[in-house]
Amino acid sequence: GVNCLAYDEAIMAQQDRIQQEIAVQNPLVSERLELAELYKEYAEDDHDLLQKYSYIRKTRPDGNCFYRAFGFAHLEALLEDGQELQRCDIGVTGVCPQLMELIERVERRVPLPELLAAFNEPATSDYLVVYLRLLTSGCLQRHRRFFEQFLEGGRSIKEFCQQEVEPMCKESDHIHIIALARALHVSILVEYMDRGEGGATNPHVFPEGSQPRVCLLYRPGHYDILYK
After folding, report:
1. How many of the other CB atoms lie within 10 Å of CB of 37?
2. Which residues are known catalytic residues?
3. Of 105, 53, 106, which Cα lies nearest the Cα of 77?
4. Fewer CB in a 10 Å sphere around the end CB: N or C, the chain?
5. Strands 188-193 and 214-219: what pairing?
6. Calpha distance 55→145 (Å, rounded)
7. For residue range 133-181, what is the model confidence (pLDDT) as tens digits?
């Protein structure tokens, strides 16, 4: 038992070191970069993307990247579109002060670098991730009859939310995206990079047929933000 415990502790320590290295090397949300930057990582795989998009904004690969990428892209779009901001109900009344302050910055139309700086403050950024996770969980549970058909392994929606949605650092899939898009009435386009098709990407819009305001790139296990 002692050896197993020591082994577990060694594994956890190694995981902590890996997370610290990731944190040092990657901001929570990066500056906007030329999409050609992707060539440094995927020399053969992004020709299709370059025909459709010009820029990418990277997020830290920490398991929270979908929520962080969506959160930044959504608030950035609202920052640039005053009319949409007036129509939009972000719905954060009564939540933590850090999150209220972030939304108030958007409502005041602060410069984009100020929004980016806020997203790179772990306390502010992580509060938003927690809030979006809880919104997603709430939507899944309100519409459990619809969403339970997508679950495998006999789990209930409540169990799924407790295990795969609400905890920090849990990765996201189609079901999370559908629920968050529905919860906030925001259209999300995800470009799925498929390495087996000569660099082609497969776009999916959530919900289908809507006009997306947020564009994300999905590569296995990770989401970044795309711009035309």
Report:
1. 13
2. 62, 65, 222
3. 106
4. N
5. parallel
6. 39
7. 999 999 999 999 999 999 988 899 999 999 999 999 999 999 999 999 9
Please report the domains of the chain, with CATH numbers, ordered by start residue: 2-227 (1.20.1300.20)
The label of the residue with tokens 């806020």 reads 118
- Token pair of 84 as six digits: 């949409």
The pLDDT of residue 2 = 46
Nearest Cα to 120, choosing from 170, 77, 58, 74?
Answer: 58
Q: Are 226 and 50 in contact (CB under 8 A)?
A: no
Question: What is the rounded distance in angstroms from the CA atom of residue 96 to the CA atom of residue 154?
Answer: 35
Torsion angles phi and psi, residue 59, rounded to 5: -120, 160
Kindly state the tokens that stand for 218: 């999905």
- pTM higher than the cut 0.90: no
Neighbours of 133 (CB within 10 A): 22
For 177-225, write each residue's pLDDT tens digit: 999 999 999 999 999 986 555 557 889 999 998 999 899 999 888 999 9
What is the predicted pLDDT for the residue at 1?
46
Q: Which residues does residue 33 pair with via DSSP β-bridges, in sequence order?
A: 56
**N- to C-terminal Cα separation, the chain:** 56
Phi and psi dihedrals of 222, rounded to 5? Answer: -150, 145
Please classify residue 20 by burial: count the beta carbons closer than 10 Å to its beta carbon, then call 0-12 exposed, 13-18 middle and 19+ buried: exposed
pLDDT in tens, 54-85: 999 999 999 999 999 999 999 999 888 866 66
